[in-house]
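Sequence design from tokenized structure. All designs in this work follow the same two-part layout: the structure record, then the generated sequence. An example of the structure record is given first.
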């Protein structure tokens, strides 16, 4: 079963966290990603740029609307994701509990439903 571990937390600048403060967390995330990879369950890992660099696109009114900034202004923002392939939710929970981001943010665990691989859509799980 494939799960996305979605990292949601305050932006470092909003929380007054300096680059120096981030160094131990970068090391912890490096070790975490390497442990997922060594376990053979890591599908992908992405840490996102700050939300201020977001561009939002919509066609809701029938015309293209492009907006700088995130869709919603919230205290916690999507900061990244780890996609893992594990047998069940219990295993996904165990890995999420080891994520350094759980120390200062929220890890949302969401099962994947459909994936596009090798030129076609495939149902998962």
């Amino acid at each position: 079963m494939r799960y996305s571990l979605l990292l949601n937390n305050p932006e470092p600048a909003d929380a007054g966290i300096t680059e120096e403060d981030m160094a131990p967390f970068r090391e912890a995330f490096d070790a975490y990603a390497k442990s997922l990879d060594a376990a053979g369950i890591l599908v992908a890992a992405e840490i996102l740029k700050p939300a201020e660099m977001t561009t939002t696109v919509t066609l809701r009114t029938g015309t293209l609307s492009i907006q700088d900034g995130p869709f919603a202004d919230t205290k916690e923002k999507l900061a990244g994701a780890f996609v893992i392939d594990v047998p069940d939710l219990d295993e996904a929970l165990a890995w999420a509990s080891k994520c350094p981001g759980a120390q200062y943010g929220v890890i949302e665990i969401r099962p994947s439903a459909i994936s596009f691989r090798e030129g076609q859509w495939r149902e998962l799980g």
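The chain is about 25% helix and 35% strand. We note this feature because it recurs in several other targets discussed in the main text.
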